[in-house]
Amino acid sequence: MEQLPILSVLQSIKDSLRSHQNLVLTAPPGAGKTTVVPLALLAEPWLQGRRILMLQPRRLAARMVTRYMAASLGEQVGETVGYRVRMESRVGPKTRLEVLTEGILLRMLQNDPSLTNVGLIIFDEFHERNLYADLGLTLALQAQSIFREDLKIIVMSATLDTTPVANLLGGAPVVAAHGRSFPVETRYLKKPIDGPLEPALVATIEQAIEKDTGDVLVFLPGAGEIRRVKTRLESKDLSGIRIAPLYGGLPLAEQDRALQPIQPGERKVVLSTSIAETSLTVEGIKVVIDSGLMRVPRFSPRTSMTKLETVKVTRASAEQRRGRGGRLGPGVCYRLWTEQNEEHFTFSNTPEILEADLASLALELAVWGVKDPASLQWLDRPPEIAFQQASELLKRLGALAEDGTPTPHGRFLAESGIHPRLAHMIAIGKTVGLGRLACEIAALINGRDIFLWDKGPGDADLRLRVDALHSSRNKNSHFPAAGMRIDTAACQEIAREASHLERSLHVTGNQQGNIESSGMLLALAYPDLIAQQRPNGYFLLYSGRGAMLPRGPQLMAAESYLAVAEIDEKGTDSLILLASPLAESDIYTHMADQIEVENRIFWDKDAQAVRARKIDKLGAIILKDVPLADPDPTKVSDTLLAGVAQEGLEILPWTPRTRQLCLRVQMMRHLDPSWPDMSDETLITSLKEWLAPHSSGMSCRADLQRLNLTQALETILTWKQRNELDESAPTHITVPSGQRIPLDYSTPASPALAVRLQEVFGLQATPHIAGGRIPITLELLSPAHRPVQVTKDLASFWRKGYFEVKKDLASRYPKHYWPEDPSTAVPTHRARPRV
C-alpha cells in the first residue's frame, strides 16, 4: 500500500475536507483512490463516528472492492466494511463504511432525506455519468443544503473533467493524484476487420498467447460475444490456459474465478465487458485486447423504449482499457481497429441523463417533492421533452396524478427498485393472481435472451421463454417444445432475479397463472407498444408506426393484437423482437382508462352523406368502429352543412327561379349595400344562418333534394325587402305582345330582357325597373331567337337602326310582318298579327 500514488495526496484530501464540505478527487486506475481513501477517512474528527457511503456503478465492483478493503483490515465483509447492492446485503451493526450501488442510495435518501448517521458520501467512478449517479448527486446536494450542512461529498474519477463538477459542488477544491503506470505498447490493425468480430478476436488472442507474456484481458461488448469467443477458444488446443468470462450477470463463484490469481504454470485469458475498465483489479494482466466496442443503453422518444446498442468505444474508454496492461510492468495493447479509424472516435461518453429513459428519474423526483427538474442543481439538466414524455407515461401507469404528485401506487413503484413499467405490471399482476408470472416476465425482460440464436433475431414469442424458464426450473436439460438451444447460465440468472422480485414485492401463494396471460401482463407494462395485426401480416403500433415479426407463426395466428416489449426501429417498419399475443377482451378489461372513445360524425364524400360512428381507440389503433346510435342532431346538422361547404352549393336543388332570386337580390344590393349579400361566396360561409333551419333531420344529398331552396333563401330577407323586391326587381316583364318574359339578372347592374323584335312593336321607350332607376337591356331577337340587336335606348333604335335590321330580316323571313313604323305597329308573337 506504501507505493500507491494516492498516498502522496492523502493528507491534502484530509486537509481539504476539514475546511470544505465537498471535494473533487481525480486519480488514474490503480492509484488506490477507491480502496485507500474511504478507510483513511474513517478516523477523521468531523466524521464523529458516522458512516461513510461509497457509491459504485456496478454490483460486481461493489462486492470486490468491499472484499478487498475488509481483507486489508483483517476482517470479514459485514464488519467495519460492508456492501448493499440489489438482491444482496452484507452489513452489520458495526459497519461504518458501506459500498452501495446508486439505486440503494436513492432509496436511503427517499426514506431519510437528512441521512441520519451518515457523515460522507463518496461518488466513485463518476466519469461514467450514469443516470442514477447524476440523480443521486443532485438529491444529495439538496439534502446537504436543506437538512445537513455538515454532510460531506466527494466525487472521484479517473478521467473526469473536474471544473464543472467542482462548480456544481460550490467551488469545491480539486485534489489530483498522479498515477504510476508502466509503458504499454499499442498495436493497431493494418486494415479494418472484414467479417464477424469473434474470429478476429480469437486469432489475436492466439497471437498474444504465443508472442507475449502474462495474463490477457479481452474487452468485448457483451455476454453473447463472450460466450461465442469462449466456445471458439475451448475448441482449440490451449493447454495451461484458463478461459475466464467476466460480466455482471455471472454467478459470484465465476466472477471470483476471473479475478483470482493463477496457479504456477498457468496463464489466464479474461473475457470481460467494460466492467473491467475501472474499479476492478484483475490480477496478473500484462496484455489487453480491445474489440473497440461497448454496449450502451439508448432511449428512443419515438417508441418510449430503451435498448442496448453496440457502439464504438470512446477515446477515454480506450485509454482506460489500454492502461490495464501497464499496472504490473511494461505491457501490450492490441486494438482491433486501425489508427486512422481512431480519429473518428468521440472523446467521452454522452451523459446517460441526456439520452436515457427518464421514467424512473421523474418518479423519484415526484416522490422527492419536485415537479420541475430546473429547481435542482444538475451537472446536466434532464431534457425537457424527454422528462415530459416520462411524466405522461407515469400518469398512464397511475403513478402520478394529473398535477404531477405521486399517487400511493406511484410510491410503491418507486420503492420497488425496478423500472416503473415492470413494477406496475407486477403490482396489477398480484391483484389478479398472476404475481409470480409477472415477476418471471420482468426478469426475462431485464435479462439477456435465454435462447441462443445462431443468426439474427429469433422467434419473438415471450411465451416460449416463460415456458423454457419453467423447464429449467424443473431441471429439464432441454426445451423440446421450442426446439431451441437454451442459455443455461441466463436461465439461472433470470430465475434468481424472478425469485428476488417475488420476495421483495411480497408475491405470495400460488400466483403462477397460465402463460397465455403473458400478453395481458406485458400490455400493463407497455401499453404504448400494443400492436394490431393488419391484413398484410404487418402490425400497426400504438404510436402509428408500422412493425413486423422476424418469424414466429405462433404470434401471427394467435390474436389480432400483440403486447410488445422490445422492438428494433431501424428501417421503415420496426422489427418486433419480444411480444406475446393479447386478447381484445384483456385490453377492455385492464386498460379501459386508456381507451379513447370517439363519437365521430363526419361527411363521407363517396357516399355524399353524414356518417356517425363510435370508435374505440388505443393510441393510433382502432379497436372498434361501429355505427353510433342516436347521434347528436346538432352535430349531424353541422356536419351536413360542412359537407355542403366541401362539395359546393351545386349539391343543393337549384331551380332557375332560385338562381334568379339571388341575382335579383344582388341587383338591389348594387343599388343599396344594406341589402343582404347572396353571392355564392357569402352563402357558402353563412349556411348555418339560412340553410340549417330548413335542413333539420336531413343527413345526405338525397335528403337535400327535398328542400324548398327558394323559400330558404327568402328567409334571409325581411318582409319589407320581399315586397320591395317584387316591385323593384320583378321576375318577368309583360311585353306589348302580351307575353310574360323572365328578366335575366346575371349582371346585377344591367338586367336584360331577351325578346323577339316583333313582340315589342308599339313599345316606344326602353322599360325601367327599380322605380325607374335601372333601364333594362333589351336583347332583340329574330323570329328564330337569334340576337339581332342589343340596346338600352329603344326609341333611338326605332329611328336609326331598325330599318337596316328590317332589310336583313325581311329577306330571311319574308312571311313575317315588318312594319314601316315599329313604334306604332301592332305587336305580335306570331308571324303576323291577328286581323
What do you see in this structure?
This protein is of the alpha/beta class and 835 residues long. The chain folds into five domains: 5-176, P-loop containing nucleotide triphosphate hydrolases (Rossmann fold), CATH 3.40.50.300; 184-353, Rossmann fold (3-Layer(aba) Sandwich); 418-593, no CATH class; 595-729, no CATH class; 732-812, no CATH class. Helix content is 35%, strand content 20%. It contains 28 helices and 31 strands. Strands 4-3-5-2-6-7-1-8 form an eight-stranded mixed sheet, with helices on both faces. It has a six-stranded parallel sheet with strand order 9-16-13-10-12-11, with helices on both faces. Strand 18 and strand 19 (546-548) form a beta hairpin. Helix 11 (359-368) packs across helix 12 and helix 11 crosses helix 13. 41% of the residues are buried. Residues 476-482 have low confidence and may be disordered.
Query: For the report, how would you describe the main beta sheet?
Result: 8 strands, mixed
Low-confidence stretches: 476-482
* Distance from first to last alpha carbon: 144 Å
What structural class is derived from the secondary structure elements? Answer: alpha/beta
Shape type? elongated
Total strands: the figure is: 31
Number of helices: 28
**Mean pLDDT across all residues, rounded?**
89
Count of structural domains: 5
Q: What percentage of residues falls in helices of 4 or more residues?
A: 25-40%
**Strand order within the widest beta sheet:** 4-3-5-2-6-7-1-8
What does the radius of gyration come to? 44 Å
Strand composition percent: 15-25%
